[in-house]
Amino acid sequence: MPKITAYAPIFRDWEALLGAVQSNAGLLPGTDPLKAELESMLAKTREMKVQQEDFLGKRRATTQALQQLVDQGQEVARKLRAQIVSSLGSRTELLKQFGIATRKRKSAKPAEKLPVIQTPKAATPQESGTEATGKGDPA
User: Fold this and answer.
1) Domain range spanning residue 14?
2) What residues contact residue 39 under an 8 Å CB cut-off, 6+ apart?
3) What is the pLDDT of residue 52?
4) pLDDT tens profile 19-66
5) Selection from 66, 93, 88 nearest residue 6 by Cα
6) Is residue 94 a contact partner of residue 27, using CB atoms and an 8 Å limit?
7) Is the residue at 133 inside a domain?
8) Total domain count, the chain
9) Which of 6, 33, 73, 79 could crosslink 41 through cysteines, CB 3.0-4.6 Å?
10) Is residue 1 part of a domain?
């Protein structure tokens, strides 16, 4: 998967995740440490992004530090989402609020048998009562 170089979608994703966790705090016991860590990562990452834009000479080092923070933040977001799935279950529709796809059980359908089509045999000249020359009755 290619790395994302535009950070606005990541910031919006983290903000949406944090907002959903905040509005459903009663349903998600034990997520406060991860939520606080992601909030801290978001603030640090935003500050680093501002520094990246201000320091053209230090751009490479700042970009590397920014990417490292984004990678760490993505990992914390993954852990937070795993904690949410663990708390709520993998089939609840509430998971959509957190950017998590619900898992639906696929029912095993028996394979349908296709009907066998019988093709008629081609008649040979002897069976049809005509000669191989096709001139009609041999008598």
Assistant:
1) 8-98
2) 18
3) 80
4) 999 999 999 999 999 999 999 999 999 998 888 877 766 778 888 899
5) 66
6) yes
7) no
8) 1
9) 73
10) no
Angle between helices 59-88 and 32-54 (to 10 degrees): 160
The predicted-structure confidence for 61-101, as pLDDT tens digits, reads as follows 888 899 999 999 999 999 999 999 999 998 888 888 999 98
Length in residues, the chain: 139
Quick one: pLDDT at residue 134? Answer: 54
Q: Is residue 129 part of a domain?
A: no
Token pair for 97: 């609020």
CB of 58 within 8 A of CB of 41? no
For 46, phi and psi rounded to 5 degrees?
-65, -45
Query: Is the residue at 79 inside a domain?
Result: yes
Considering only CA atoms, which of 112, 86, 110, 114 is closest in space to residue 100? 86
- With tokens 């008629």, the residue in question is 120
Could you tell me the pLDDT band of residue 1, with boundaries at 50, 70 and 90?
A: very low
